[in-house]
Design brief:
Rossmann fold, alpha/beta, globular, two-stranded antiparallel sheet, 12 helices, 11 strands, Dehydroquinate synthase-like, alpha domain
Length: 362
């Protein structure tokens, strides 16, 4: 088993990475827990429900299941209230533990519910998608979406552990694997040029779920995110670089309707757009922009953005959490392996849209 530690003011906790970890979830449940709330969706429970129920039964605690509707479109107040209703109806108290078992949507909503219920109960992240394993389950960002913006309502609230079983990735469709790989590539672009080069060389192996390559990608991604989060828990400085591609990507998700593109697909395309903007504003070499485009394409993510219309792009971006005082703020790359946040004039985006957005009707 590999253990990566996260150290923040909001809590210190381990990330356990181990084949078969799903069968040992009881080890993560605190001895003083009075009950377990298992939050998931029907698709995940259909694949692994019996296995997880058996694993949690070892803890000897009552288990309350909350089955959420599947998909980004349901990352909403209504779904959040489903969790609160179940916890309240079953009388769960402050010593209950919530287990968020699923992808990023389940993890974000489960964590937010844990942050709010009785002003905070403990929770465990059990991510089942590659994107959740390498990114959203680590660092304590919890949220739901609002029609005007993605993840606009939420809290920073750290789990007590993250339990990763790479074997569950075998049941994911290829599109979900590609979406998760976008976040893997992101770490190389913003903080580790050597890891980015490794991603370039191993893109085909990663898409094919080569066990050795995937295990290394998960471990290295968790190590890099843990390093950033440990230095800046609440995104007041360095942690913002983790949002490379997200200002463009969130606009794509909101503009098309949540769920039309997967989050990682939108981020992958957004990283290509961010690289183009970096070339214009920071002088990122053209050959490096092409390296970004090639690797995003190689992992199976889109490299051409949808035609939302320039005005709509800007409107959606102004609702991004990184926007400050009505100014657009982007994570940019002066070079591969290094990132910084910059305010950007709206006028600078027009040329980027012309180079990266699909022609109208195309």
């Amino acid at each position: 088993m590999t253990i990566v530690r996260v150290t923040t003011p909001g809590g210190d906790y381990p990330i356990h990475i181990e084949d078969g970890r799903l069968d040992r979830l009881a080890e993560a449940v605190p001895a003083d827990a009075t009950a377990i709330a298992l939050v998931s969706n029907s698709a995940i429970l259909g694949c692994y429900g019996e296995r997880v129920r058996r694993a949690l039964a070892v803890a000897g605690k009552p288990v309350v299941e909350v089955v959420l509707p599947e998909g980004e479109a349901h990352k909403s107040w209504q779904s959040l209230n489903m969790i609160f209703d179940a916890l309240l109806q079953n009388g769960l108290d402050r010593k209950a533990v919530l287990v968020a078992f699923g992808g990023g949507v389940v993890g974000d909503m489960g964590g937010f519910a844990a942050a709010c219920y009785m002003r905070g109960i403990r929770y465990i992240q059990v991510p089942t998608t590659l994107l959740a394993q390498v990114d959203s389950s680590v660092g304590g960002k919890t949220a739901i979406n609002h029609p005007l913006g993605k993840n606009m309502i939420g809290a920073f609230y750290q789990p007590i552990s993250v339990e990763i079983d790479p074997q569950v990735l075998a049941t994911l469709p290829p599109r979900e694997i590609s979406a998760g790989l976008a976040e893997v590539v992101k770490y190389g672009l913003i903080i580790d040029a050597e890891f980015f080069s490794w991603c370039e060389e191993n893109a085909a192996a990663l898409r094919a779920l080569d066990l050795e390559a995937v295990a290394y990608a998960i471990r290295r991604s968790c190590e890099l995110k843990a390093r950033v989060v440990s230095q800046d828990e609440r995104e007041s400085g360095m942690r913002a670089i983790l949002n490379l591609g997200h200002t463009f990507g969130h606009a794509i998700e909101a503009g098309l309707g949540y769920g039309e593109w997967l989050h990682g697909e939108a981020v992958g395309c957004g990283m290509v757009q961010a690289a183009e903007l970096s070339a214009d504003l920071l002088g990122l070499p053209g050959e490096d922009v092409e390296r970004v485009r090639r690797v995003v394409e190689a992992i199976g993510c889109p490299v051409v953005a949808p035609d939302l219309g320039d005005a709509r792009w800007i409107e959606l971006m102004l609702h991004d959490k990184k926007a400050e005082g009505g100014k657009l703020r982007f994570v940019l790359l002066p070079r591969i392996g290094e990132a910084e946040c910059r305010d950007v004039d709206e006028a600078a985006l027009g040329p980027v849209f012309k180079r990266t957005v699909a022609a109208s009707g195309g």
